[in-house]
Design brief:
single chain, alpha+beta, Hydantoin permease, 2 domains, 7 strands, about 55% helix, transmembrane, membrane, Amino acid transporter transmembrane domain-containing protein, transmembrane helix
Length: about 500
């Protein structure tokens, strides 16, 4: 696996403001027409169609910022239940589970990053590419929707578990500070209820609750963070990651101070069913890899950052699981933090760390998942051009459709969508066209005019049988008519394939 390309920068094109329904997209020299939009720079390819370029100014996340972001996403809702896993499964399955899941997460993250660089037009992370974009590129629209749903459910599952844990901990904190927490109960008796004492279980409420004061506090902390962009959230992630590491170190030290009881964690326990599920909750950072790669500085290395996070957090979590299990006897319906907070011999520092953990770990990781979900949702819409203008993604899309490869200026070619083409076939076609274009050494610029008949009322493809019309093609200096004719057919095939993939 090549890693050198993971830390390089790229350039992006910035469109002008006014765009007519019939747009000319150029590569190389500016268009001589007054009613056109010029785009300078190297040819765009499939990646530009799927996601618009990222401005260099948006790539601001440093190595330490990326490290903090991934540490916070590694510290999931399963962290506080790891000692229970070690006690029920044994230290051998727990150790194996961490090594396997940690290694798989590391390799999977690198595979995702390398797949992003294999997207045409994103060789140096110069575009905005998310998971669904990758699936659209390599597998097509149908699988893109499936992956979009799976990613949404996976991140929402983590969010729900994190919100539940933080809400319970905030309810216990309110009892600790104000000797009361309240909520609305729906079972066994409907109505408001207040609790003044903590229970051995994670939640102070014994019934089924609709909402509690802890939920309100959690939402008040989560929502403001979820409304900003990823790069704007990094400073908070750095503060959170620092506190997370300090809390974990404090836990490990307190374990040794209190004393270890190895009999609490056998080599092999009676129940191993929760090993991989609980551990996977703590290595969910792969969902943030594309968004982080889109916003990181060009000098930041993906393998180095992911490797440091994976090795460090695997070591720390293994220590917390095994040593914590050897220190406290934890009921199955409780957590390590709840046991620490209710233990009479717990130090004040340990209790502060226990109440602080959900704030610095879970409360800051939930907004990241929400931000990533928001970024994914943006990829479900792929406009080509609108009647009153086009945005950067639209223009990049049309630039790909145009491809910069065409024939005689007076030519008019019609092409009706036929068989579907896989994205990999489009890539091969692009390479073939580029080779043919290179052979025509006198070519200095090219552009394509898409007629109004090739776009719908709102600028989208209307159906799989839509006739795609190339109204005018400019190839200023022609030397090979046959080669140019071949390029025309190839360009039409690309337009057809793009329309087919967008329609699924």
């Amino acid at each position: 696996m090549s890693t050198g390309q993971f830390g390089q920068s790229g350039t992006s094109n910035t469109p002008k403001d006014d765009v007519p329904i019939t747009a000319v997209l150029n590569q190389g020299e500016p268009s001589p027409h007054n009613d056109t939009l010029d785009m300078q720079g190297p040819p765009s390819v499939l990646g530009s169609m799927i996601a618009g370029p990222t401005l260099a100014s948006a790539k601001t996340i440093s190595f330490w910022g990326g490290l903090a972001l991934l540490i916070c996403n590694t510290t999931g809702p399963g962290a506080i239940s790891l000692p229970v896993v070690a006690q029920t499964a044994g230290w051998v399955p727990t150790l194996i589970g961490f090594l396997v899941v940690g290694s798989m997460s590391y390799l999977s993250s690198l595979f995702v990053a390398e797949a992003m660089t294999m997207m045409p037009g994103n060789e140096q992370f110069q575009s905005n590419i998310e998971f669904s974009n990758l699936v659209l590129c390599f597998f097509g629209r149908r699988y893109q929707v499936l992956v979009q749903v799976v990613c949404f459910l996976a991140m929402q599952t983590t969010n729900i578990a994190s919100i539940a844990i933080t809400s319970q901990l905030f309810d216990n904190l309110l009892i600790r500070l104000f000797h009361k927490t309240c909520g609305i109960q729906i079972y066994p008796h409907a109505g408001p209820i207040c609790i003044t004492e903590q229970l051995p279980s994670a939640s102070p409420f014994s019934g089924v609750m609709l909402i509690t004061a802890g939920v309100v506090v959690s939402m008040a902390l989560i929502l403001p963070q979820a409304l900003v962009d990823l790069s704007e959230n990094i400073w908070l992630q750095m503060v959170s990651a620092t506190l997370i590491l300090l809390i974990i170190v404090e836990w490990i030290v307190s374990f040794f101070i209190k004393g270890l009881t190895p009999e609490l964690v056998p080599a092999f326990g009676p129940d191993m069913s929760q090993v991989f599920g609980s551990i996977l909750f703590n290595f969910a950072y792969i969902t943030a890899i594309p968004s982080w790669a889109n916003a990181k500085r060009p000098s930041v290395s993906v393998p180095k950052t992911v490797g440091v996070v994976s090795s460090m957090m695997t070591t720390l979590f293994t220590a917390v699981a095994i040593l914590g299990g050897m220190t406290y006897k934890i009921p199955e319906n409780s957590t390590m933090i709840q046991v620490i907070n209710t233990s009479p011999d717990s130090t004040t520092l340990s209790q502060i760390a226990g109440y602080t953990f959900p704030i610095v770990a879970l409360i800051t990781s939930i907004p990241i998942n929400i931000i990533v979900i928001r970024y994914h949702a943006r990829t479900l819409s792929f406009p080509i051009i609108s009647a009153d203008g086009a945005d950067a993604e639209s223009l990049a899309s049309m630039e790909l459709a145009a491809g910069g490869f065409a024939v005689d200026e007076s030519a008019t070619t019609s092409y009706t969508a036929g068989q579907k083409m896989k994205s990999k076939d489009i890539n091969e076609k692009l390479h073939d066209i580029e080779n043919d274009r290179s052979a025509n050494s006198s070519t200095t610029s090219s552009s394509l005019v898409l007629s109004k008949s090739s776009i719908g009322a709102e600028g989208n493809y209307q159906g799989s049988g839509q006739e795609m019309t190339i109204e005018k093609v400019q190839y200023p200096t022609q030397t090979d008519t046959e080669a140019n004719s071949a390029l025309t057919v190839a360009s039409a095939e690309m337009i057809e394939a793009i329309g087919e993939e967008r329609l699924g």
